[in-house]
Design a protein that fits this description.
53 residues, transmembrane helix
């Protein structure tokens, strides 16, 4: 049971760290363009093979 003295604060710290990382990602604009990647994969840019010289 004495291990809980270490594990409970560690779990709380890791949870707070995860919430902090999530809030940071919201503030830095990570979720601003949710459809951009799905449209970029359908584009034809860069599909042509490089010409050998």
């Amino acid at each position: 049971m004495s291990v809980l003295i270490y594990l409970i604060p560690l779990a709380l710290f890791m949870g707070a760290l995860g919430i902090g990382a999530f809030l940071w990602s919201l503030e830095s604009g990570q979720y601003d363009d949710l459809e951009g990647a799905s449209w970029r994969i359908l584009g034809n840019e860069g599909d042509a093979p490089d010409e050998e010289q």
